[in-house]
Amino acid sequence: MVVGSAGGPLFLRAYFLHGGARKWLSALLQTAGFPLLLVPLCVSFSRRRRRRDDGAPAKAPFFLMTPRLLAASAAIGLMTGLDDLLYAYGLAYLPVSTSSILISTQLAFTAAFALLLVRQRFTAFSVNAVALLSAGAAMLGMNAGGDRPAGVSPAQYGAGFAMTLGAAALYGLLLPAMELSQAQARAGTAAAVTYTLVIEMQLVIGLTATVFSAVGMLANHDLHAIPGEAREFDLGRSGYYLLLAGSAATYQCFFLGTIGAVFFGSALLAGVVMTVLIPVTEVLAVVFFHEPFNGTKGVALALSLWGFVSYFYGEVQTSKAHHHLPDKPTNVERLDP
């Protein structure tokens, strides 16, 4: 998640800054790295087959997913494709620093949908964290246009602002949907839900989202425009294709880390981790792109950090309370299958 959250937006913003203009292509890049997941899946299958050969009579299945989980992952993949398009559209017209802080509002949406879908329990600290992050985004909204990049019209900036908020809201739905799918998989099968199964889910999500974006590219004639865009790219043709490959690999790290955070923790935890990584992206955007960092962004960033500290402190206190109450279930914040 650190690699993807910090590096992904920088790669994508560099694409737009140096002459790239294809929204559907940039959306596709965010999930096109899904074939990389075949490597750990093949290793896992090889290990399962060796264990079967040592004594188990049945053959090891190549995929562990049930049809129901496959359908759920495909549906999440379609929503992911739409979310990628909204995010790419916003990043085309917004500085990375502004886009990153706006994306942090996904925590508020994640909290709301987690409450509805997986019965997430909240403390005063988690509610305070959501409120602080929402306040930071509202401050950016009141200052909208003050950091508008050169060559971007007010209408484009406003559209980018709205699209980025829409991407945050949709991703706030996706995280609890992932957690709910994993919980239902636990309830619907006697086999353990392992991280290998989670990687398979991400493979299906990435494949479906990539197909969604590829159809959009075909409708928008992006495939025919890529060679010409590569020739005119500021960093040269080789730099163009290296940038595309780097974007795909980096974003795949992000999605794999995110679904892992949901698996080992919860959807709300994944949202909090995404938020706390904002300062890394902020600093890198200022260093590499020389983006402005005004007082409003500074206050919004401070509110984001304050919100994370509040959430983390609340989790520590909750963990201590559960430690002193051994008769209570230890997984109270997860959906009980």
Automatic annotation (TrEMBL):
<dbReference type="InterPro" id="IPR030182">
    <property type="entry name" value="PUP_plant"/>
</dbReference>
<protein>
    <recommendedName>
        <fullName>Probable purine permease</fullName>
    </recommendedName>
</protein>
<keyword id="KW-0472">Membrane</keyword>
<dbReference type="GO" id="GO:0022857">
    <property type="term" value="F:transmembrane transporter activity"/>
</dbReference>
<feature type="transmembrane region" description="Helical">
    <location>
        <begin position="295"/>
        <end position="314"/>
    </location>
</feature>
<feature type="transmembrane region" description="Helical">
    <location>
        <begin position="157"/>
        <end position="178"/>
    </location>
</feature>
<dbReference type="InterPro" id="IPR037185">
    <property type="entry name" value="EmrE-like"/>
</dbReference>
<feature type="transmembrane region" description="Helical">
    <location>
        <begin position="239"/>
        <end position="263"/>
    </location>
</feature>
<dbReference type="GO" id="GO:0015211">
    <property type="term" value="F:purine nucleoside transmembrane transporter activity"/>
</dbReference>
<keyword id="KW-0813">Transport</keyword>
<keyword id="KW-1133">Transmembrane helix</keyword>
<dbReference type="GO" id="GO:0005345">
    <property type="term" value="F:purine nucleobase transmembrane transporter activity"/>
</dbReference>
<keyword id="KW-0812">Transmembrane</keyword>
<feature type="transmembrane region" description="Helical">
    <location>
        <begin position="69"/>
        <end position="89"/>
    </location>
</feature>
<dbReference type="Pfam" id="PF16913">
    <property type="entry name" value="PUNUT"/>
</dbReference>
<feature type="transmembrane region" description="Helical">
    <location>
        <begin position="125"/>
        <end position="145"/>
    </location>
</feature>
<feature type="transmembrane region" description="Helical">
    <location>
        <begin position="190"/>
        <end position="219"/>
    </location>
</feature>
<feature type="transmembrane region" description="Helical">
    <location>
        <begin position="101"/>
        <end position="118"/>
    </location>
</feature>
<comment type="similarity">
    <text>Belongs to the purine permeases (TC 2.A.7.14) family.</text>
</comment>
<feature type="transmembrane region" description="Helical">
    <location>
        <begin position="24"/>
        <end position="43"/>
    </location>
</feature>
<feature type="transmembrane region" description="Helical">
    <location>
        <begin position="268"/>
        <end position="289"/>
    </location>
</feature>
<dbReference type="GO" id="GO:0016020">
    <property type="term" value="C:membrane"/>
</dbReference>
